[in-house]
Amino acid sequence: MYSSRSDGWSGGTTGRGCRTGTRCSRVDRTDQLAPGTGPDPDGRGRVDVKLSVVDNRTRLAELAVDPAVAELRAEMAEQSAAFETAPAGLVVAWAVERFGPKLALSCSFQEAVLIDIAVAVDPDIEVVFLDTGSHFAETLAYVETVRDRYDLNLTVAHPVAGAEDHPCGTAQCCEFRKVRPLRQALAGKDGWLTGLKRSDAPTRRRAPIVAYDDSWGMVKVNPLATWTHEDLVGYAVDHDVPQHPLRAEGYLSIGCAPTTRPVAEGEHLRAGRWSDSDKVECGLHL
Question: Considering only CA atoms, which of 230, 223, 139, 213 is closest in space to residue 179?
Fold first, then answer.
């Protein structure tokens, strides 16, 4: 049901000798042609045929499209447009109803606004935290604070094998400490709730509310996509959401300790992330 909450919710081959996508000027047809008949007057059992490489590849691409996925993709695009001005709680409620136990929420625990909204809809929703092994001690303490506050159904994912060869800050670090662990955690799920916001970075400017994500093979739901940093702060104050202790020290976007610094006055809130490089995404939202 609805309440006065600002979030709006309380509760092979293509023929003999022809490789796929290549041009074949002659095709063996000895099983279908008799000497002196049809377009094979010399009786050699061969016939010239013309294949369009472009048309062939196009057809293969069409055949590769799963009709069910195409239908789901179109449905989610329509749903996203309908949610463009909807409150986050309504979006979460739709996702819970649509995907049930096959829905999970991933959280970096920079803040807990989406958790506050989601557990009001479904107290048992699965929340996934990626423990990269390089978090601030304050972040780990904050995870426990939020877990206790909401009695979370929390899954903690850890780096996969090989992560030790890619220390925090190196090119493949996030692949082994975030992307692959999350893929494992989301295995068997159909829906994924995230706290992604368009205001976070230029790479996220066109983030939909709901979309089928081809790279993850599931529906990705971003209930806070239209929110700003100020919206988050205001909601947290109004709903007494626990705050990450490092926010008071100028950490407005909090990731792994070795690659995160406080933000100076006038800087973008994510300026403190990977500030010694041109990196802006860890790979989860590409």
Answer: 213
pLDDT of residue 228 exceeding 80: yes
> Given this model, what pLDDT does residue 78 score?
97
What does DSSP say about strands 103-106 and 46-48: parallel, antiparallel, or unpaired?
Answer: unpaired
**282 catalytic, yes or no?**
yes
- Catalytic residue selected from 107, 174, 256, 282: 282
Are 193 and 118 contacting, i.e. CB atoms less than 8 angstroms apart?
Answer: yes
Rounded to whole angstroms, how far apart are CA atoms 47 and 57?
A: 22
Q: How far apart are CA 139 and CA 133, in angstroms?
A: 11
CA dihedral of 180, 185, 189, 194, whole degrees rounded to 10: -80
Report how far residue 9's alpha carbon sits from residue 277's, in angstroms, rounded to the nearest whole number.
41
Task: Enumerate long-range contacts of 171-176, CB under 8 Å, 24 or more apart.
Answer: 174/282, 174/283, 174/284, 175/283
Q: How far is CA 247 from CA 8, 83, 113, 142, 171, in A?
A: 27, 30, 14, 12, 27
| Cα distances (angstroms) measured from residue 209 to each of 135, 146, 197, 222, 267 | 28, 25, 9, 5, 27
Q: Do the bridges between strand 26-28 and strand 103-106 make them parallel or antiparallel, or are there none, so unpaired?
A: unpaired
Render pLDDT for 187-222 as a digit per residue (tens, 0 to 9).
999 999 999 999 887 777 889 999 999 988 999 999
- Cα separation, 200 vs 202, whole angstroms: 7
Contact predicate 272/262, CB 8 Å: yes
